Amino acid sequence: MTDSYLYSAARTPFGRFSGALSHVRPDDLAAQIIGGTLAKTPALEPGRIDDVVWGNANGAGEDNRNVGRMAVLLAGLPTSVPATTVNRLCGSSLDAVLTASRAIESGDADIVLTGGVESMTRAPWVLPKPERAFPAGNLTAVSTTLGWRLVNERMPKEWTVSLGEANEQLADRFAISRERQDAFAVRSHRLADDAWNAGFYDDLVVPVQDGGRTVLERDEGIRPGSTMEKLAALTPSFRPDGVITAGNASPLSDGASAVLLGSGSAAEYIGATPLARIAGRGVSALEPQMFGYAPVEAANRALKRAGISWADIDAVELNEAFAVQALACVDAWDVDPQIVNAKGGAIALGHPLGASGGRLLGTLSRRLQEADKRWGVAAICIGVGQALAVVLENVAGSSR
Asked: Is 90 a catalytic residue?
């Protein structure tokens, strides 16, 4: 067994639903970030890439038929470079990293490009296919943008509540107030804006081109003017007397991310030194409606497998699907809340489902480098009651 390392990471800016990226196909978004990521390691001959593992949550429209392979071809990589697409909903691109790192550690591959893409704007409506030709009744088109669709009637009703209602239940269970959620959201926007203004994201984000012109250079959803007063004025989205609003939940988004992984010996071909080691992985699951809380156990398992504890952790990147679920997880961990999402989170940056895991890992690696710290955790909740987590060890700095 060998170790697997992160060599580079990049992402597109994340666009708002029906925003600047609405005219860009998801396979083109994926192709652009593949090119942008490989540009960071110009000495690497693309033909040396053993595999591409790509994440995507919907796969019902232009991202169908193995969007990872489509993106490899559109990016102009040699046709000899294979690719697969994995779907673990919101965790898809982080799952791609888990899959690739296992392949490297077992010796099945030396260099694997991972990532993910989602255009929630361009996710199509679908119709159930009739069991026989020319049905007499009407058919209803179902949006594939987010959440349950075409649900099997044998599924228990308590499992198939909306994502918002599931998190209202989480707020009830852990007594997390609207005020705490709004304050968390304001912090996310402020820190994201501060990080952009300080240049933190300059080398992590690749501007998106469409028709030869740049259409987006910075995350589109950041609202630096967010305040508690403004968020308090928003109407609850899922219950008349609820605590979840459009202001304290992540928005529908478009975007792509990529992470280049390799073995230690692959440095010779990549032409770069590793930035971080994949030190631990964690996967967990619980009742579908409790999905927001699932990262608690996933991160704890990843830490155990890395042989460290929360006391060793210097940085945490936790996907903010909803403020309430992020708060519930942070409350359950023995961790300083100030080291969680210190450069902003998904409430401000956006959450294109298949791309968010790659964003988390790229940001985490950069944070460890910037602060010259050793250990970090990236974790993400996943619809239908799952979560993933990865522990990174910074190997590029002096802290050992």
From this structure: yes
